[in-house]
UniProtKB/TrEMBL annotation:
Ranges for domain Hflx-type G: 273-439
Binding site for GTP: 279-286, 304-308, 326-329, 393-396, 417-419
Family membership noted in the UniProt record: Belongs to the TRAFAC class OBG-HflX-like GTPase superfamily. HflX GTPase family.
First-listed, main subcellular location of the protein, grouped into a coarse class: cytoplasm
Gene name per UniProt: hflX
Higher taxonomy: Bacteria, Bacillati, Actinomycetota, Actinomycetes, Actinomycetales
Keyword Magnesium in record: yes
A GO molecular-function annotation: ribosome binding
Keywords noted in UniProt: Coiled coil, Cytoplasm, GTP-binding, Magnesium, Metal-binding, Nucleotide-binding
Chain's role: GTPase that associates with the 50S ribosomal subunit and may have a role during protein synthesis or ribosome biogenesis.
CDD domains: HflX (cd01878)
Protein name: GTPase HflX
Keyword Nucleotide-binding: yes
Obligatory cofactor(s): Mg(2+)
Residues holding Mg(2+): 286, 306
Amino acid sequence: MPEQVDNSPVPGDERAWRIAQRVLSREGTALNAPEDATSAGDLDWDERTSLSRVAGLHHDATDISEVEYRQLRLERVFLVGLASTGSVEDAEISLRELAALAETAGSQVLGGVVQRRRTPDPATFIGSGKARELASLVADEGADTVIVDSELHPSQRRGLEDVVKVKVIDRTALILDIFAQHARSREGKAQVELAQLTYLLPRLRGWGESMSRQAGGRVAAGAGIGSRGPGETKIELDRRRINQRMAKLRREIAHMKRHRETSRATRRARAVPAVAIAGYTNAGKSSLLNRLTGDDVLVHNALFATLDPTVRHARTPDGRDYTLTDTVGFVSRLPHELVEAFRSTLEEIAEADVIVHVVDAAHPDPLAQIRAVTDVLATIPGASEITSIIALNKADLASPVQLASLRAHLGRHVVCSALTGQGIDELRALIAEALPRPHVPIDALIPFSHLDLVSRLHTEGEIDTEDYTEQGVHIVGRARPDLADALREARRTP
Ligand SMILES: Nc1nc2c(ncn2[C@@H]2O[C@H](COP(=O)(O)OP(=O)(O)OP(=O)(O)O)[C@@H](O)[C@H]2O)c(=O)[nH]1
Ligand SMILES: [Mg+2]
């Protein structure tokens, strides 16, 4: 159920109030979403984009902050990047990615500029002269939004906005928006909303000071919301309500995480090894999953097509079962709010026995993408120790020279294409080889009343010899400890 919200308008800080209200009471958030765990694969892309393209309210420039953390109704955008530490080429690659992100969010990219500057300008990010140049570019192109390829301080955003006269948003807000548009499961929605509120909170503070004076006194007396007595200001109340909401979301997420751990534990108990497919967004993770399992998970040439982990069953060429999990894609400078929010999803990767790290070999800078992924993986306890296989995907698009120079930098890898099927058998074989092997020796006569154990031995264990006798099936081979225990138990209770 959505929380009960006090809607009384308060003079002076009406805007702040209204924005907070809408975040807290908006539709389709985790807490009032239907109780299902729809996987991304079950949803058609068109349906999703049509959801995100519902005709929006027309935002005027005064409502920018709201636009930031609600769905951005971007139409015609202009991009700005800064080449400070890296090269101009790097900044350009990053800006092209920003363009793809903006398109994924549903906007039309009119153009973009990269500015070389050692450090960002504290007032306008790009410096006042450049900001004026940008203003005329924006006016010429008829853009209504500027997206900056960095995380902006709230005052920089306001400063730049004052000069360019259209709304300005940053890369973080854009990524958060895409996640908000794409999240389907309850857990995904809760995680994104938590990330958005985390992003919003310090930005609310910016305009809190002056407004609290205007609102003054008891004006905020939000009866029923843990009334804190006189002197409380509206903005503090909003902040408290947001904090309450965040606490509630955290509890929900913890609860759903326990649920997921239970199903994970069930898989573990059945000793089915797990393989996680990880990698940069748009690398072809879902396509590879489909190739490996003959499934039909959503594939789309867009960033972050997959947000919810999808688990599928697969089998090695020699008949052993394992699970394959498709995971959310990574992106350079993933907002830390999101890394935090998606930690439980990322932990799914840490639980895997093998990680298949999918790389778009045809990308202009695949090594940077690999680094972005391994950097995030390094923050998940246990993840860096897991056997990982690099799948250099989209080999059909990459030139032989490109592939050769990339391969020189990599450890265990396979060159493949989810599109043509090239290298898929090799990938299957590498996965099979990397999966943990059953190691408890078995030499058992299994009574016919326990044929289920015979079939488990076929899919989970390794069989050297199998003889059907009058008393049952005599099997020699190896199994995992839990199956070995079950076999012992079965012999005791024929
Ligand atoms: N040419 C070519 N295109 C591919 C290949 N693999 C995937 N693609 C395309 O790349 C795009 C992204 O593929 P997805 O499988 O959705 O990628 P993903 O890694 O799951 O992406 P997200 O879920 O958005 O992070 C789609 O347009 C695919 O058709 C490949 O081997 N060759
Ligand atoms: Mg995907």
